[in-house]
């Protein structure tokens, strides 16, 4: 397909920055800021570690439901309406948790915040990918996820920088206040994108929605499920694990999340390059192996070494898993667009919800947090295995012709 119009570098930068901003808002200031906040909220007596895991599960349930909403309403016209709506939901629910210590209200707000996260995390990158495809710039799509990596660093700074003078529910204020201008600017830019509705494919055939799950995509979906369950344990509980394993005043008590953030920022660019150079499928298998070793390190070497390796290796890979899997899925089903992205995020969201729930059951049953990371090791091993059953898209399409 020829490009609809050439995009100048300034346009590309603005669009990618807008997407990065809205992902920073919903995924970093909405979801991942909870990870460095959790040890402080537990220390403040707002809730226990077990209750904190339950709150995380409610947020991930919302994420799953948001992705399912995005499957239903996946057209460009829907996205133009839903993006601003759910960014507003994010801001409102974050403001609510600044005002309460009630566990039920916190859980409900975090659930609804997760719904907003699921919708926006699907729709913003999908919208940008369609815009880039029309301009023959699809290989740049992964750069939008830099917003998540930058957001991890921002969230870490917001939490540690205000730790000494905020307490309990007040600790959410920095995230709420920063979300407002970033969400507003990002959605204004994304709603300007000119994306015509495609009725025909490149050969002129009418587009129809074929099944998303077939012999080619099924192992990819299952592999992605393993990734979701595998990465979510360190991304939810790593700072809490540091608090349990390290002495008071140790630099890694807050430093593990900084390490995650620093390794996450360049990850989209690195895995974009590796995917282009060695192929998305071999790059995905390598990604799984590195991520598996990261979570395994936290189990084999409790303490500073294991925590540092886990933070670096998981931080440097999990966004690569997302962008490589999304690209592979779209290559297997080229005309599915936002619907495909929504289905994959829904599956990812389900396994992310299961992770904190399993951790809560493990802790309530007398297990330790470090041993719970073994769940993540098994999940990533499963994902790596299934990645070897995914065919190369070009081979799959050649066989079906």
TrEMBL record:
Major location category of this protein: membrane
Pfam families: MFS_4 (PF06779)
Subcellular location: Membrane
Keyword line: Membrane, Transmembrane, Transmembrane helix
Molecular-function GO terms, alphabetical: transmembrane transporter activity
One Gene Ontology cellular component annotation held by this UniProt entry: plasma membrane
Membrane topology type: Multi-pass membrane protein
Sequence intervals crossing the membrane: 12-34, 54-74, 81-99, 111-134, 143-166, 172-190, 221-242, 254-271, 283-300, 306-325, 337-358, 370-390
UniProt cross-references to InterPro entries, sorted A to Z: MFS_4, MFS_trans_sf, Sugar_transporter_CS
Matches recorded under PANTHER family: PTHR23537, SUGAR TRANSPORTER
Protein name as it appears in the record: Predicted arabinose efflux permease, MFS family
Organism this protein belongs to: Marinobacter persicus
């Amino acid at each position: 397909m020829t490009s609809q119009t050439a995009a100048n570098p300034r346009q590309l930068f603005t669009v990618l920055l807008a997407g990065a901003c809205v992902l920073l808002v919903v995924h970093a200031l909405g979801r991942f800021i909870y990870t460095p906040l959790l040890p402080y909220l537990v220390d403040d007596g707002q809730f226990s570690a077990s209750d904190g895991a339950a709150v995380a599960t409610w947020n991930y349930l919302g994420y799953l439901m948001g992705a399912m909403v995005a499957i239903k309403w996946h057209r460009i016209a829907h996205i133009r309406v839903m993006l601003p709506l759910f960014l507003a939901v994010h801001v409102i629910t974050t403001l609510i948790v600044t005002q309460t210590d009630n566990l039920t209200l916190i859980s409900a707000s975090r659930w609804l915040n997760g719904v907003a996260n699921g919708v926006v995390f699907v729709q913003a990158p999908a919208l940008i990918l369609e815009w880039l495809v029309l301009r023959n710039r699809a290989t740049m799509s992964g750069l939008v996820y830099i917003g998540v990596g930058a957001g991890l660093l921002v969230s870490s700074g917001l939490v540690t920088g205000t730790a000494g003078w905020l307490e309990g529910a007040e600790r959410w204020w920095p995230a709420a206040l920063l979300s407002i201008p970033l969400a507003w600017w990002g959605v204004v830019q994304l709603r300007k994108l000119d994306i015509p509705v495609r009725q025909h494919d490149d050969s002129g055939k009418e587009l129809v929605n074929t099944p998303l799950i077939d012999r080619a995509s099924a192992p990819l979906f299952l592999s992605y499920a393993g990734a979701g369950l595998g990465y979510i344990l360190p991304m939810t509980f790593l700072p809490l694990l540091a608090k349990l394993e390290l002495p008071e005043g140790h630099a890694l008590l807050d430093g593990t999340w900084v390490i995650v953030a620093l390794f996450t920022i360049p990850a989209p660019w690195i895995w974009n390059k590796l995917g282009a150079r060695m192929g998305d499928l071999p790059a995905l298998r390598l990604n799984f192996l590195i991520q598996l070793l990261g979570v395994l390190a936290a189990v084999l070497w409790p303490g500073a070494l294991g925590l540092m390796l886990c933070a670096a290796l998981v931080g440097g890979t999990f966004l690569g898993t997302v962008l490589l899997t999304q690209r592979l899925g779209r290559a297997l089903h080229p005309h599915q667009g936002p619907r495909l992205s929504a289905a994959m995020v829904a599956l990812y969201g389900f396994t992310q919800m299961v992770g904190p729930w399993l951790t809560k059951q493990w802790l309530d049953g007398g297990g330790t947090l470090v041993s719970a990371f073994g769940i993540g090791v098994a999940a990533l091993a499963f994902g790596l295995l299934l990645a070897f059953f995914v065919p190369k898209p070009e081979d799959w399409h050649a066989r079906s012709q």
